[in-house]
Known about the structure:
Layout: H1 3-38, H2 44-51, H3 53-59, H4 61-71, H5 75-95, H6 101-117, H7 119-129, H8 135-161, H9 171-180, H10 186-205, H11 226-230, H12 232-260, H13 270-298, H14 301-320, H15 325-348, H16 359-384, H17 390-419
Amino acid sequence: MTPGDKADLTFRRERWRSLCSGVIETAGNTFLLLIATRHFDAGPVAKSLVAAGGSVGLLLTPLVVNRIQKQGSRPSEAVARMLSVGAVAMLVAALVPAEWGPLFAVFCVIALATPFSVIPLLTQIYQDNYPAERRGRLYSQAVMLRIGAAIVFAGAAGLWLDPHPSDSFPGWFNHLLVATAGIPGRDRILIVLFAAAFAAAAWSVAPVPSSPLPAALGAHPLHAWRYVRSDRVFRQALIAWMLMGFANLAMLPLRVEYLGNPRYGLAKPAGEIALLTLVIPNIARLLISPLWGRLFDRSNFFVLRCVLNVGFALGIAAFFTSDTTAGLVVGAIIYGISNAGGDVAWALWVTKFAPAERVADYMSVHTFLTGVRGVLAPFLAFQVVRHFSPAAMGWIAGAMILAATVILLPEIRASRRKAG
Length: 420
């Protein structure tokens, strides 16, 4: 198979996987949290577990990469197997009785962990199959499909959970909402749809061409950490990403809490929560994603990262310091624009620094640290918000992101000196 054929097949199958990933993304970001709160009456610990499900998968990435290196399996086959496990776990979650909220959270964590645990394997596939000069563009085009699927599914699922006729809807649509309002088990049907998305994602990625990973440089599953010690630029980028990522991941689940909990005076319905946390940000991501893909291919990575950091800080501040619809919408749009660039930068940045055959190793360190902050940040956020206002937490998060930007400024100057 020629490099061009390999890239075309990868891109074609990746587009199918991205459509499924858009559906799965709405599960972890919003709907499983809503179901845990409303149907299972989950407490702070259970909600924190659901919010941290993807981060648990990121913590497992060094173990997954090490295992695949030892087995000599093709990365695409390993990804398909893990996504199949996620489908089964999601089906089991749909069968959990309403009074067993902690058990529901456990199976949600298992399911949500699977697509995140294989991210370094996917990054290695992008490194091997996509040409360097088009990698960001191809990735961002697939992401657009993921975003579009998330927008459509979020809107439909929000209406499915809370069907309320409106004067802005066509008459036939309002009749449909009224006719389906009495369907029992809406929450569980939605969870089954998430399980189907996992299964379809596994089917889509299995035929992607990939080569077995090179043997590990050490027997220990965390052997890739040697690159943190030996590669100074990699180390600095990881430190900055820890500050920025911790702040962002702490505030992400609090968007649902801020909008839905009557304690903060908003108490928005599920449809409006989905609009502000999923639909509007994802429309912004959809429109701007191709630009970020081209910028990733052509610009200095550290400059790109600093611009994104400023955007995240502004988005958090605007969202959590406002109680008006206009302010919430502005915050959601800024966050969506920044998140579009964050998608590309987060998934591909190690391809600019790591040796080609060690991209999965470098990425496993990055994803592991993302998992650490992803597990700790939501848990701490749900505890701290009991004592501080979301607005105060938003300002603190913004300050952390700006500090991460300052850390990267010397790397920008160093890279410019090398280029000059």
